[in-house]
Amino acid sequence: MGVRGLSGLRDARAYAAVAVLALIMAVWPIGSADASRKAHFTHSAHVASGGRQPLTSIVIDAETGTVISESGADSPHYPASLTKMMTLYLIFEALDQGRIKLDTQLPVSDYAASQSPTKLDLEPGETIAVRDVILGLVTRSANDAAVVAAEWLGGSETLFAQKMTAKAHALGMAHTYFHNASGLPDLEQITTARDLAKLARALYHDFPDMYPYFATREFVFRGEVITTHDHLMDRFDGMDGIKTGYIRASGFNLAASAVRNGRRLIGVVLGGDSGPARDRRMAALLNDGFDRTAPDTSGTLVATANPAQSFASSDGAFESQSLGARAKRVLKRLSPIGTAEASTTSKPGRETETGRWGIQVGAFAQQSAAEKAAHAALAALPSAKGHAVSVSKDKLYRARIGGFSEKDAERACQALHKKHHECAIVSPSALRVAQN
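Below the sequence we write its predicted structure tokens.
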């Protein structure tokens, strides 16, 4: 995230205060309830006393949870914007339980709008759809959107943070304590690389329909194209998310997930000296992890969606397959959402039944793969017979089916989701942009 942390003077005073408090609590008679609080502050003091912590990391198998490699994975660390992974977990949980919907409009308070950048520049008194909150969190790492969700789901950010910590402990994240929804600097907000790997794995397994949001590369919000902070997705073969983070005290953090040959790995790197250095470390760890693990030819236990690079092989193996085989392979490895269009509040005269909405079923490095994906998805939708397929090109070839009304596009995507295929609704305005 774009926050540069506290000033040196504020850091020094805060660290000194935590050290004094830790010393007081070390000698103060305590009960069982206070013992947990003492342990919490001890972790905080440990982190604060040495300034930025050294680089820590872990790589696990997403299906089994088996640790493939680790280095200081249990050392306390500031999560920075990786905090938003838990904010998103609780949003996804609320969606799953029917307490909110993707188009639910959430109010923006003065406090939410006042959050430090990076943010969506939300204004007090306006509303934002849950779907746009999600996209704002996974792309721009928007702090104002995080607080909007926290206040709606928790009543206040403080109460929501308590729910975050409770959920963390329920997921086995025993050394994690949350104090805000965004990851902005807080000396008492502590986690470990191992705990964050558990959270990333829980997001993947608990919300397979929501997980593809983490692969969103760009997000159109109120006419502005917002690109992801996770630049490693464009360079690492098989990577499809999930979250970056930075504050001065933590260094550069990254939780990542990648899949190759039907095997998904999750990696966490905390404390990088720079974004590129952190990304290089993650790439090396994941490459080493894939080298250590044999391909799983039996298939994964949970449906996965591989990004475009899975098809960009230079040996021509994909192109030599029959059309039917290629279509099946494409459908098994459709890319998650590449480009998303923001929701808008319904207004009179809105273009809802024009027959110009579309659905995007993948973003690929090769035009042929995009075309096959679009035709294969069309074949999986009997009700869409006769609709046009198209391939638009910016950085990637985007496979789309067009000619829907808005409601029909939603139904088509729901039908594909039920068949374990990823897709995203594309509005008429986004289609026009793609065609220009």
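The longest strand covers residues 251-260.
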